[in-house]
Amino acid sequence: MRKERIWSLKDTEMYIEEIRLLLMVYKIKDSFKLKKELFIYQRTGSVYEFYEFTGKVLGEGGFGQVHEVKEKDTGRLLACKQIPRSKIRNQMRFINEVLALKNCDHPNIVKLYEVFEEEHDVFLIQEKLNGGELFDYITNRDYLTEAEAAKIFSQIIKSLIYCHKMKLTHRDLKPENFMFKSSKPNSTLKLIDFGYARIFQKEPNDGKAKILRMRSKVGTENFMAPEMILRNYSSSCDIWAAGVILYIMLCGFYPFEGEDEEETFRLIENIEYDFDDEVFDSISDEAKDLISKILTPEKDRITLEQVLEHPWIIKNLEEPDDGAINTNLIDRLKKFSKSTKLRKAVATLIATQVTDRSVFESTNAFNKIDTNKDGYITLDELERGMASHPTQVKHIMDQVDTDKNEKINYNEFIAATLKDKTLKNCFSINKAFDFFDKNKDGQIDKDELQEILQDSDIDRVETNIIKGILLECDVNNDGVIDKKEFFRCMSLKRQDP
């Protein structure tokens, strides 16, 4: 009997239009491009070879359990989402989650480190978020102060602005799908679980983008927008759900909750909620005004950008607005701009794997420079951020923008501002070498460079790009890069013509 071929994530990616649209977000300008998703490890070996399962279950995801695992080489504790293939009945939903996480690059979105595909299960290795769910944070306190709610809510909105910039709508926003990085005060909040995520923009052959109306009624009933219940909605459904979360944070209960699902949906469709509870007596008019402008019919609902500009948000946030960046980070940006292509590729790889704690300074600087909070740094924003440090800002922008989308993404900024001790850490460099050395023969050849640096939007990486990388690093001219040459290349500067 012929053995049935096992479905593979890579196979599915080739044929699903949703995935092609996600990849088409990036614009082609230069054939040497470094994208974060190129460096998300995708293994076919056993997850148990690299990770030890501690026995602690962290929670339930959209498809399966989330386990705590320990990385054998480093002892680092991470989260592993185990997804039985037998439960993947909706392949599109599963692919949406994996690819959304591979493409998403924002401080308020959970990090995906690597993917293991095995015969019976798929394992997603993600950062471990130790601070617990926003849901538990609220219920343990009954409700939050306005200042605290505003700080948390602004992070929710920033994550959504980025997702919508990526033409991705989450569709299942609720307090359970936001987790804190740690239990420390003012910890970063991160969006998780992209199982219902959906692209809402179509790229037809004529190049004219078309915004799609969505029809599937998905997610959690108390957070569904009226238009979602009617099965005709846009990405604005995420804004509505965020408004419901804000209401809950301020009072501790749902704005729409009937005796059963039918009654809940009726309340939502009629937008029947109020501020009559005594807890709202102490809530400011500005907070109620913001909620009222979100929990309203789709045509009247304010945008995510308008939410951040609302007086209640501005009044309660104590964020500096100078956009300044310190001298140390400026020096690292300059050094990165002069790096070899291979060093930039390795920095991009390491940046996908580092912990938030090790890049705390860089993350703060990124958030400070990104004044419109869309998850990208434009040339204008970079010029303002570096105003007190006269330098070649345009040149730095061109060199740090390694995926050539004419702006600096979060991972690019982290890669360009890594400390030398992080970038040249012996373990990190060895792990990076192993990533490039696909056939594990102790050297990196042109075919391996070609495979890793392959751009998803073009047929191949230009031959001269590969030759250039070899020329920079191949000291003995044998056509390959051995480990000694690899380490040496990490200390080299690019030789400009």
Automatic annotation (TrEMBL):
ATP binds at K81. Its main location: cytoplasm. GO terms for cellular component: cytoskeleton. Pfam families: EF-hand_7, Pkinase. Residues 357-392, 429-459, 461-496 form the EF-hand domain. Keywords: ATP-binding, Calcium, Cytoplasm, Cytoskeleton, Kinase, Metal-binding, Nucleotide-binding, Repeat, Serine/threonine-protein kinase, Transferase. The keyword Metal-binding applies. Its cofactor is Mg(2+). It is an enzyme of class 2 (transferase). Its EC number is 2.7.11.1. It is found in: Cytoplasm, Cytoskeleton. Residues 52-313 form the Protein kinase domain. The keyword Ribonucleoprotein does not apply. InterPro entries: CDPK_Ser/Thr_kinases, EF-hand-dom_pair, EF_Hand_1_Ca_BS, EF_hand_dom, Kinase-like_dom_sf, Prot_kinase_dom, Protein_kinase_ATP_BS, Ser/Thr_kinase_AS. Belongs to the protein kinase superfamily. Ser/Thr protein kinase family. CDPK subfamily. Plays a fundamental role in microtubule organizing center structure and function. Component of the infraciliary lattice (ICL) and the ciliary basal bodies. Monomer. This is non-specific serine/threonine protein kinase. It comes from Euplotes crassus.
